[in-house]
Amino acid sequence: MPQYSSSQVSLGMSAEAMLLNTRIEEALKSQIPDSAKAESWYSVLVDLVNDLKKIYNKHPTLCKFILLTAGGMVTVPILLQIAGFGLLGPVEGSFAAWWQSAVGNVVKDSLFSWLQYLGMMPGKAAMTGAVIGFAAFVWVELTKVPESELDGEKTTRQSRRRRLENRRQ
Predict the structure, then answer these.
(1) What are phi and psi of 160, to 5 degrees?
(2) Does 167 map to a domain?
């Protein structure tokens, strides 16, 4: 059995949990008709992707909003845990532990203390990620060049920058 630090959660299952999981899967499989079992996962995945494309084509702005805010909500807590900002403090041997040892006494309201606070409060980290995702969404929408200004020209960074500068003048 692997050793985990006190701020990490084991993702392994106990024998009882594995037995319960197996019984639930068997009960669910017995309820699925044979015709549904024959349908491959690939065709279901293709249908899902096609449905998502239709939704995106109808509502591209809403999809960008959902993608960026939900992506931020999921990504920020995961990145904090990967960096070693654990639920009970910096995880031993991690980047956060190295940073704390390099800083020495951590000052209140510093970047390190804020990241550690978010690492200890995953819900607040998720909300912070949502705010970051929302800010990214607003930035993307505000810097978007209207189709009327493109005139069939291929958009490049320089052409976008030129158009933005012309707009400001």
Answers:
(1) -65, -45
(2) no
Q: Which helix (H) or strand (E) holds 90?
A: strand 89-90
Cβ proximity of 101 and 52 under 8 Å: no
160 contacts: CB under 8 Å, gap ≥ 6: 143, 145
Determine contact, residues 31/100, Cβ cutoff 8 Å.
Answer: no
In a domain, 109, yes or no: yes
Domain that holds residue 75: 46-143
For residue 169, what are the β-bridge partners?
A: none
Find the helix or strand (DSSP H, E) in which 86 lies.
Answer: strand 85-86
CB 127 within 8 A of CB 77: no
Q: Residues with Cβ < 8 Å from 10, sequence gap 6 or more?
A: 2, 4
Q: Cα dihedral sign for 56, 62, 68, 69?
A: negative
Number of domains in the chain: 1
The pLDDT mean for the chain works out to 78
164 inside domain: no
Answer whether residue 71 shows pLDDT above 80.
Answer: yes
Query: Is 4 a member of any domain?
Result: no
The pTM of the full predicted model, rounded to 2 decimals, is 0.57
